[in-house]
Amino acid sequence: MLTFTPVTQRALARLRRYYQNCNYHLCEYAAGTKLMWRNYLHPQFAEAKGCLIVKNQIEGKWRFDFPVPGAAGDVDAALGEIEAYCVQTGIPLSICLVPEEKAADIVTRYPYLQMANYRAWWDYLYEAEDLREFPGRRYSGQRNHVNKFRKLYPDAQFRPLTGADSALIERFWQDYEAVFTKTSASAKQELMLAKKMLRLADKPYFHVGGMEQDGRLLSLSLGERCGDMLIIHIEKALYGYEGVYPATVQAFARHFAVNGVRCINREDDAGDRGLRTSKLQYLPSRLGAKYCFDIRNELCALSEIPVLRAERLTLSAFTEADRAAYNALCLDDERNRWWGYDYRDDLKGELTENYFLDVTRHDFAHKLAVNFAVRLDGKCIGEAVLYRFDSRGGAELGCRIAPEYAHNGYGTEAFRTVAEWGLYRLHLRHVVAKCYKENLASYRMLASCMRRTGEDETFYYFNKEV
Question: Which of 288, 299, 323, 452 could serve as 123's disulfide partner, Cβ 3.0–4.6 Å?
Answer without folding.
Answer: 288
